[in-house]
């Protein structure tokens, strides 16, 4: 069985500082239950996943006036062409090993 302390030790040996601090923080907090709670239009709390999805769908349809069509994208800079296979391979070689 792989315990959290083993993971912290591995990250320490590999010098993954960010993962070490994240692991210590999670270890100190312990297990915390996650709940999905949303308020409906009247301010009542809903926790049922189907009701939450319906509420979000209704909220965003009102927000966008029910208009979800694809809009044209305007940018200040011209769009760049996709990189070639050679450019992609060169970029991969420049990445750090970890």
Low-confidence stretches: none
- Compute the number of strand runs: 2
- Strands of the biggest beta sheet: in what spatial order? 1-2
Radius of gyration over all CA atoms, rounded: 23 Å
Largest sheet: 2 strands, antiparallel
Strand content: under 5%
Q: If you average the pLDDT, what whole number results?
A: 78
Give the fraction of residues assigned to helices: 40-55%
Coarse structural class: mainly alpha
Shape: flat
Span of the ends, CA to CA: 25 Å
Which oligomeric form is depicted?
Answer: single chain
Give the ordered list of helices and strands: HHEEHH
| Annotation field: number of helices | 4
State the main characteristics.
4 helices, flat, two-stranded antiparallel ribbon, mainly alpha, 98 residues
Write up what this structure looks like:
- By secondary structure, the chain is mainly α.
- The protein is built from four helices and two strands.
- 0% of the residues are buried.
- The longest helix has 15 residues, at 49-63.
- Strands 1-2 form a two-stranded antiparallel sheet.
- Helix 1 packs antiparallel against helix 2.
Layout of helices and strands:
Elements: H1 4-14, H2 17-29, E1 38-39, E2 45-46, H3 49-63, H4 85-94
Antiparallel strand pairs: 1-2
Could you give a quick summary of the protein structure above?
The protein has 98 residues and is mainly alpha-helical.
């Amino acid at each position: 069985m792989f315990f959290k302390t083993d993971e912290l030790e591995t990250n320490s040996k590999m010098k993954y500082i960010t993962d070490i601090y994240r692991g210590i923080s999670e270890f100190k907090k312990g297990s915390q239950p996650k709940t999905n709670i949303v308020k409906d239009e009247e301010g009542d709390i809903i926790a049922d996943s189907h009701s939450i999805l319906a509420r979000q769908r209704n909220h965003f349809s009102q927000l966008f006036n029910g208009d979800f069509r694809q809009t044209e994208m305007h940018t200040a800079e011209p769009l760049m062409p996709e990189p070639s296979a050679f450019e992609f391979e060169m970029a991969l070689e420049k990445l750090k090993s970890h």
